[in-house]
Amino acid sequence: MKMKGLSLGPLAIGGFSIIAAASPTYMKNFMHGTLPVALKGSVLQTSGQNSTGSCSSGTASTAKAPLQNIFAALTADEAAAVTKFLHQQPELNLTANANATSWDNVIVLVELLQPNKSDALPYLNGDGEIPRRYSSATIQFQATEEPYLQEYIIGPLPVSNETTLESLNYPFNKGVGKQRIFNADAEAYQQFLANVSASVEDILIEMFNATYSNSLEDTLFIGPSDPLWIDDDTGAVTTWNEYNPAPTDIFNTGSLLRTGLAVRTDLTGRNPSKWSVLGWYYNGEFYKTTEDFRSAFYNGTFEFFKPGVDGDWGATSPSGPVLPHDDTPPPVSVQPADPRFGVDNEETYIEWMGFSFFLGFTRDTGMRLFDIKYNGERIVYELGMQEAMAHYAGSGPGQSSLSFLDSYYGFGPNAFELVNGYDCPAYATYLDTSFYWREERHSHKNSICIFEHDAGYPIARHSANNYVYTTKNIHLVVRSVSTLGNYDYLFEYAFFHDGSIHVTVRASGYIAAAFWAKNEDYGFHIHDTVSGSMHDHVLNYKLDLDIHGTKNSLMKLEVIPTTEIYPWSAGVPRNTMKVNKTFIESEDDSKINWAPNNAATYAIVNKDTPNKWGEYPGYKIAPVTASTAHLTIVNSTNLKNSINWASHHLYAVQQKDTEPRSVYAFSSLDTAHPVVDFGKFFDGESLVQEDIVIYFNLGMHHVPDTQDLPNTVFSHAQSTVAISPQNYYLQNPVRQTVQQIEIDYDLDTVLNIKKFGVQDAVCSYDMSNTIANLSNYEGGDLIMRKWPYDPSNPFFGMTEVETI
Ligand SMILES: *[C@@H]1O[C@H](CO)[C@@H](O)[C@H](O)[C@H]1NC(C)=O
Ligand SMILES: *[C@@H]1O[C@H](CO)[C@@H](O)[C@H](O)[C@H]1NC(C)=O
Ligand SMILES: *[C@@H]1O[C@H](CO)[C@@H](O)[C@H](O)[C@H]1NC(C)=O
Ligand SMILES: *[C@@H]1O[C@H](CO)[C@@H](O)[C@H](O)[C@H]1NC(C)=O
Ligand SMILES: *[C@@H]1O[C@H](CO)[C@@H](O)[C@H](O)[C@H]1NC(C)=O
Ligand SMILES: *[C@@H]1O[C@H](CO)[C@@H](O)[C@H](O)[C@H]1NC(C)=O
Ligand SMILES: *[C@@H]1O[C@H](CO)[C@@H](O)[C@H](O)[C@H]1NC(C)=O
Ligand SMILES: *[C@@H]1O[C@H](CO)[C@@H](O)[C@H](O)[C@H]1NC(C)=O
Ligand SMILES: *[C@@H]1O[C@H](CO)[C@@H](O)[C@H](O)[C@H]1NC(C)=O
Ligand SMILES: *[C@@H]1O[C@H](CO)[C@@H](O)[C@H](O)[C@H]1NC(C)=O
Ligand SMILES: [Cu+2]
């Protein structure tokens, strides 16, 4: 592993800490207002899990993408050329990140600018030039009293004397790609909190036997909430900061250990001597000044509780006696032949059983899928996660202030190496990813896995008195895991023989708990002084379906109870049900919640291409799991206009080149004035035979209980939406697969066993292939954490660091 000289230190963001930065200078810049990780990703090569033995089990076959992947990230050379070009622009007044202080302008991000659909489609359809390539850049202007981020467009690429630099504004409905930063001086702020802590050191020692001094040796931590509170009228920037004890073991229990003692600060402006304390909170009581808090503490009636003590209850290794047989090898899936899918490493293009698609990878979102075709026809132009929110609530200010918009931290940089044989089957094919980060390029090996899998139940079967048939439910899975501080999000796209695509997110990891004090209305009491702390997870996805072209409509199909008198019912009303087929014709009606009792389904159809029965072919969108969620809170005080995508389950809008994404990653810096306000996408436009984009939400309402200790489990915290054909094929495409058996029989006699030419897996399999050698595992740690005291190196697992 090649790594640069690194140092680490916990820095706060959102009451959680971030381990940031490749140099102490970076760390200065690393809080609200500075961007934790700036990165760009691209999917690199496969590294197949080789095996020996009589069964062949090589790497995925080399597919050849029919076209270039125009969604692929910038190459290292392109990113380097753009970085150099930016440094040559005097008006940017840039300082190299390696030398920058919080008062220098720096490059945060250099990424591919996603091509306009209007330019991409002609190329993908084979009747247009390849779109010219452009880069975007995020520059952090800090050599000013009012620091901000600004987006730029650089191109065309490759960099030449034709390449220009312009402000990038068209994708941002605020009008400008510009975002104020209200806390650029993160290190000074932590020092301010150390000064505040010193003023109550006697109390902290009595309560917690520790104080906070902004040093790596601290066993008590404090940092600001995410997001900051910004008062539009006065311009005041304030935040609550809660003390957390440090974990004492290897386990990442920081988010379970809370003290309940919080202080509100005013951090307006860039002059630390003007910052101030606005009050204290403990156990239901608010104290206006430090003096009030101090006199209450010493007046003899102050009651305090020991904060949670780290211990076995937060450890994740097995405990208790081994269950019967649990230490013998469990069933394991193997791949007895070469992978049955193809990968074009160069273009990150994947083909499997009639499906084909390109992968893209960005800092903000991690992997996304483009140009998904089935049997040669485009079904989906774009499919990918846009944003993930975790919105907390509580009777105290610490928890009430917490609302994470995790693309701020970035899903790309937090997608680490998957654990072969555990996160994905040992036979999976892996892709590496890479990303740009403040003038450096990092790679994470084996961070996306691709594998075929047997669902464990047949996809179709029937038996009668003379035959039985049953078809295996083999499907292709593309998976990655991003660990955002305390939580691990497992993202998955699965492709099935019925032509459907399942989009899934699962959550595990440590909950962000609260101190248990007068908050029984906000969760369960789950340990000595720990409240489970209710929160909602809402993850927004973009789904741009194109059914036989881009001109599509949104059909609603509702099953409704009815009372009908039929000509044959002898005048007797019959209580029954029927279907109500309607179209949602305007963006005025396109904010949708799943109907009670799942009574309504929604489909993108093409009215101009009816099938031979006159029905409109399409693909429907429906939840598979009971749990998909929109935000419970109405008009969130924390997130304001930044989450207008979280109020419903499903949205439909007209596609626009000016609306490529539902969010801007850094909107949580000023939630009242998001650079992209999804609410503005709705302007009453027609949804009748137009290019329609769906945005849907996955997620769950999470009221953690003792079963979330030590960790939330994926099997419970999961959410899936299926995108499935509706009248698209004249019959189910599952008949394309020969992985079925038909047994014809007559009473007791088997007459015929039909296997349709499928080869049996009769080779001998070397079971050692199911045991991955994990001694070279490089996944490890996070670039930044939202919780304090991460013991390890923030760059562990990042390879191939090159200075650009
Ligand atoms: C950082 O500053 C030093 C001293 O001025 C200079 O030699 C070096 O080139 C700078 N580094 C970068 C990456 O610009
Ligand atoms: C350029 O940035 C430096 C800090 O890196 C700052 O001192 C200087 O004032 C800036 N110049 C202009 C013209 O803004
Ligand atoms: C740009 O570069 C090309 C080839 O490198 C050259 O022919 C052309 O004259 C240059 N144009 C300008 C305006 O410098
Ligand atoms: C913290 O206190 C020290 C000593 O009083 C002072 O010099 C420093 O400016 C203070 N820092 C902040 C950020 O308040
Ligand atoms: C307080 O912390 C110190 C170490 O900082 C430790 O030695 C001591 O035992 C602790 N006291 C109590 C009462 O926990
Ligand atoms: C002590 O402080 C509490 C909380 O502020 C207050 O209610 C109480 O009156 C105080 N008691 C005395 C004796 O000052
Ligand atoms: C059918 O659905 C439409 C649109 O939701 C609604 O206006 C209409 O009343 C429904 N018809 C019946 C019979 O329920
Ligand atoms: C949301 O809440 C704010 C503050 O209470 C209020 O000013 C605003 O009008 C509310 N907006 C909506 C759409 O209800
Ligand atoms: C993409 O489309 C927008 C809106 O039409 C346009 O302003 C912009 O120039 C296009 N971008 C590129 C790179 O062509
Ligand atoms: C696992 O890989 C390491 C490093 O390549 C090697 O030293 C070790 O022998 C391997 N272990 C096994 C059991 O193959
Ligand atoms: Cu949760």
From TrEMBL:
Coiled coil: none annotated. It is an enzyme of class 1 (oxidoreductase). Keywords: Copper, Metal-binding, Oxidoreductase, TPQ. It holds the Pfam family Cu_amine_oxid. The active site is at D406, Y487. Residues 333-734 form the Copper amine oxidase catalytic domain. Belongs to the copper/topaquinone oxidase family. It comes from Exophiala bonariae. Contains 1 topaquinone per subunit. Residues 80-158 form the Copper amine oxidase N2-terminal domain. This is Amine oxidase. The lineage of its organism: Eukaryota, Fungi, Dikarya, Ascomycota, Pezizomycotina. Its cofactor is Cu cation. Residues 255-320 form the DUF1965 domain.
